[in-house]
Amino acid sequence: MVKTTIMLDDDLYKKLVQEALERYGTTKKLSYLINLKLREKAPVKRKRERLTFKLGRKLTVKQVERMIEEGLEEVAV
Q1: Cα 68 from Cα 57, distance rounded (Å)
Q2: Which of 10, 31, 42, 67 has the most neighbouring CB atoms within 10 Å?
Q3: What's the rounded Cα separation, in Å, for the pair 2 and 23?
């Protein structure tokens, strides 16, 4: 998480404060609300998790390349 300062137009700030009060009963969640709204409009791509699996044997580079080209089931047999 990064802390930063942003300049908001007065009318926008008032709307955000009002929404935070309505949703959460406090303005302490203003940052949370802004993050939600930003994610709705511009989703951030998350890092893809690496897939790992155990085949019970070691594979050669050629076998791995074949797996990528043909699919896992055909090479693992």
Answers
A1: 17
A2: 67
A3: 24
Residue 39 in tokens: 């994610």
Q: Are 26 and 16 in contact (CB under 8 A)?
A: no
DSSP 8-71: --HHHHHHHHHHHHHHHSSSTTHHHHHHHHHHHHSPPPPPPPPP----SS---HHHHHHHHHH-
- In 3D space, the residue among 22, 20, 43 whose CA is nearest the CA of residue 32 turns out to be 20
Distance CA 14, CA 30 (A): 11
Q: Over its length of 77 residues, how does the chain's per-residue pLDDT go in tens digits?
A: 888 999 999 999 999 999 999 999 999 999 999 999 998 888 777 777 777 777 788 888 888 888 888 876 655 55
Q: Is 1 helix (H, G, I), strand (E, B) or coil?
A: coil
